[in-house]
Amino acid sequence: MKKFNIAHNFEFKSIIELYAKWIREGKLKVNSDWNKNGLKFTVQDPCKLVRQSLGDPIAEDLRFVIKQCVGKENFIDMYPNKSNNYCCGGGGGSLQAPYPKQRREFGKIKFNQIMETGADVVISPCHNCHSQIMDLCEYHGGKYKTIHLWTLICLSLDILSEKERAYIGDIGL
Predict the structure, then answer these.
(1) What CATH number should be reported for the domain holding residue 163?
(2) N or C: which end of the chain has fewer CB within 10 A?
(3) How far apart are CA 97 and CA 50, in angstroms?
């Protein structure tokens, strides 16, 4: 709205910013006790959320939330990261486009970046990134799992339903 000089009386916030705020305030009581096996996690910084919108502050909030849910010692950042992170290749309608070969070739950069971390699980707050990263894992023969940010939060709160547990499969819990 500011970019186009349109008057408005509301503030835009990402739910990630609110999760971080609620965790800091003690209103969202996440913890890493559930991660008894010391699974290692990394995170995808969605282009539309980080690089093209809210920048490094939202990327920092995203990492804060994840570290609170998995333990700081169990988080491995990709490099480059935050506003400089590589695009996964799943946005902009490419998942629905009839060019999976090209999408997967472009996504190989992201796949290699994930594999270099050695992480067991990739967290994504973006559904397009989630679907693309999951597909890249299957297509290129990776061993990591991909889960949504809210799934991680539910795991840390011990409120993940059986249906959701089926969706994440065996991640070594």
Answers:
(1) 3.40.50
(2) N
(3) 24
